[in-house]
Design goal:
29% of the residues lie in helices and 13% in strands. By secondary structure, it is an alpha+beta fold.
């Protein structure tokens, strides 16, 4: 005759499983978060290298969404239903970004070049002569569907700007402040915090909390769980 489990034995088994879950799950969560942080640090290094290579080739730094542009283009800007090729010549056609050809950043001052229209025309006329050897990063573009709308998997962040492992845009600071990528201008305050806190080019991930520093009002960028790379 096969003896079944008693209620007491089942309770003991459940308790043991509960203890194991309580021990293992936090460790797995910690490892997952550590893996994301390591991935973000690799991304920041790659973005720095991309900016520096673009600067060596052309003499300028660039807004982040431009770094994955190839030469040429298809005549359609980001988000257009017919847009297939992410080419540097297409930046003039996108309506998603304000000041869409103001993409050139002075490597010394960190300011936008005031003659950006002239520079862009030179770039679009002959990328090879200008020195453009993009794409400088191999980044998956934020997904948009056939109607030019964000895919459900990324409903709020389809903007062609590189995202960190927590789904937030990487940020580019210069001594002038934070570059507001969609608007194509500097902002001196973002999320309630001062952005003029770095004396050199700085790439930053807001980290797990998605907020400046430790997330408290007015927290300083580059503190708390923020991850950054300066160059």
């Amino acid at each position: 005759m096969i003896k079944g489990f008693s209620v007491v034995e089942l309770l003991i088994a459940v308790i043991i499983l509960g203890v194991l879950v309580a021990i293992i799950v936090p460790r797995l969560a910690t490892r997952t978060e550590l893996a994301r942080k390591k991935s973000a640090l690799v991304d920041l290094e790659n973005l720095q290298n991309a900016e520096e290579r673009a600067a060596v080739d052309t003499g300028y730094f660039y807004r982040l969404y431009v770094l994955d542009d190839t030469s040429g283009g298809d005549g359609y800007g980001f988000g257009d239903t017919d847009d297939i090729i992410d080419g540097v010549r297409d930046e003039q056609y996108t309506s998603y970004y304000s000041n869409n050809t103001q993409i050139f950043i002075d490597v010394t001052t960190g300011e936008f070049k005031t003659n950006y229209t002239y520079l862009y025309n030179l770039l679009a006329k002959n990328e090879t002569a200008f020195g453009w050897n993009g794409p400088y990063i191999n980044w998956n573009r934020d997904l948009v569907n056939s109607d030019g709308q964000p895919e459900p998997s990324r409903p709020n962040n389809a903007d062609d700007i590189p995202d960190d492992p927590w789904g937030h845009n990487y940020l580019l600071f210069t001594p002038q402040g934070l570059i507001d990528e969609p608007e194509g201008q500097f902002v001196t305050t973002f999320m309630g915090s001062d952005t003029t806190v770095f004396d050199r080019m700085t790439l930053l991930s807001l980290g797990p909390n998605g907020l400046p520093g430790d997330g408290t009002p007015g927290a300083k960028f580059g503190t708390g769980d923020d991850l950054l790379r300066q160059f």
